[in-house]
Amino acid sequence: MAFVDSEVSDGTQADQDALSVKIVVAGGFGVGKTTFVGAVSEIEPLRTEALMTEASTNVDDLSMLPEKRTTTVAMDFGRITLAEDLVLYLFGTPGQNRFWFMWDDITRGAIGAVVLVDTRRLADCFGAIDYVEQRGIPFVVALNAFNGVQEHDVEDVRDALQVGPEVPFVVTDARERESVKVVLVTLVEHAMSLIQHPS
Questions:
Q1: Tens of pLDDT along 119-139?
Q2: What is the model's pTM?
Q3: Strand pairing report for 70-83 and 46-51
């Protein structure tokens, strides 16, 4: 499946009848969801970030994220055109447990989810995986290679997360547009295969 910009090759806008689908980008606190959406969005992404304050120091673990200064308090929103007739709308969830009451609204109507994982903090993604599994939302697991390095074997991570072989795993760099595109194509193909061949 080829990626195109929001305009087709002759410069006209893509067909107004294009199929639009909703994808959720979920995961733990500070895993890279905002970066993921921003790296691939063809529009200026909507971000609902707030400065972190001392009030969160006893709640949010920043030991692996010493440079983090802001956090998503509602959602991130972006858009990417995969083909002339397919537009994806990306919704990034907030990562902290105290904001999970919004997840039902954010995920409503989504065809699938990307669960973004920082393998240095595997426990932070268990909640997101449980959420999408319990609601039957098709998902892929994207291992975010911080500093461009993925230190763990994919199958070892799959075993640690106790996720079955039917769920695709992809190594990605949430900062790199082309890498993020691969994750989104994998998710769309996975969701379509489940629709065409339900278990």
A1: 888 988 999 999 999 999 999
A2: 0.77
A3: antiparallel
